[in-house]
Fold:
Amino acid sequence: MRKETLESFVLGDVLRSRADSHRTEPFLKFRDGELTYGDVHAQANRLAQGLIALGIGKGDHVAVMLPNCPEFVPVIFALARLGAVAVPVNTAHRGELLRHVLFSSDATTLIIDSSYVDRIPPVADRLPGLTGLVVRDGDGLAALGKPAVSLASLEDHGDEEPRADIRFSDLQAIMYTSGTTGPSKGAMCSHALALTCAYDSLNYLDRWGKTIYCPLPLFHAAGLWDGMMSALLGGGALAVVERFSASRFWDDVRHFDARVAMSVFSMIPILLNREPTPDDKNHPLEMFYMGKSALDAPMRERFGVRSVETYTSTEAGIATGSPYGEWRVGSCGTVHDERFVAAVVDEHDRELGPGEPGELVLRPKQPYVITTGYYGTPEATAETFRNLWFHTGDRMWRDEDGYFYFLDRMKDSIRRRGENISAFDLECEVNMHPAILESAAIGVPSELEDEDVKLAVVLRPGATLDPEELVDFCIERLPKYMVPRYVEFLDTLPRTPTDKVAKYRLRAEGNRGITPSTWDREADQATATRPTADTDAAGPAAQTGAAGPAA
Structure:
């Protein structure tokens, strides 16, 4: 795919081009088979025709709640070819979190795996705009309470490629990111943003024509853009597994002949914490992408693999990175100066000099390579884009050579096992417990490269509640990655002079509190993005997690 024509492409065009040039070559690899570029092209056309029969066309919002399955990628291409807008949904969502994403995105149709259908009836009456459901495997159709068809039945309408008038500036997806002082927000992402992010990851990592191992969920930008779309642009293959497993990681890499592995920061310490084996360097892997540069030396020594760090966000793609081979320990690289102007600023948006910490802000140099805003929330869009800067909400500093170094998150969000958690969303659910007056969720230091979740709780007068009961309550209502590891009961929450919760004072207490026994048994099992807690895989550090750039 030529750089000079990339900006005028849309996702469906790129697949058609690759199907012409690489028709019989593998595009998606699974443990039990593979799909060629020609296979995905044809299946996307069939699914698109089936979606047309359901009345879906350009501009319609279609939520996609699927695991890392063979149908996921063809569904995304089918929607792209119609000019419909995909709304990928975190498969861990349930209850109010799930309702919020489906409702606030104005999704009219939901494509969902049969294993998740039981989450729809409890919220169906509060989703008046959701008029159709498509179920993978076809099970549970009658239980949904809304008109539903099977995903397989959509492929019975022919395989002619639809020809919609789609432009690079059109929305490809609404990608939900964690909220700060409010609910999670849907970033509006164009075809140009998704494809340039994918193209840039190819160049930073020299992944052209290689197999990329992806244990990350495809509903995240990291898996979908940096993983799938960069394989597409580079003419390589994406090896897809359901989730990261430390005990299977190196066997998978050898099985797929993978040269690059997608990762979140916590994966690398888990692999380093495993017992050394004679086969530690017996594999084809060259590098981890979205690793941590500070762990590059131990990864090279132990496994012979590079750990490469960039600053990547859903809203802006890859904003900083180092030229190939010019990585600096602890740095996420220099600004991608073809795409952005970057600065570190103070609270008044005045630029700071080298060595001075502040907020990273960005301005695009090219059209539509950054989000056009947050869907349905103009106030949040205006706040984020104030003073003609896109405010990342992340604190950094830069050195005199222009290399940026991540410090921490300025937002009221928590980074755990590769997931950005909205403290607001978590607190809203917890505060619904009848014994709780108010709560505050914070991220606390952990042994891995993310954070752990701590919950400070104030009970209603006369109420009693033990930590195990609270964690059980959270397990029933929240994605597992949001369940708090630490619980602390307080008489009152500390306040600022403006009566806001002084979370900086709570953070100063660290992880003080109780770790309920139910947390170890239930809450830290496999989730959508974070590594699985294999009993033979991760060791003690697998149960813990530090802030890092957004994924």
Summary: The longest strand covers residues 390-398. Confidence is low (pLDDT under 50) at residues 1-5, 525-551. The first helix runs from residue 3 to 6. The chain has three domains: 34-168, 194-409, 419-528.
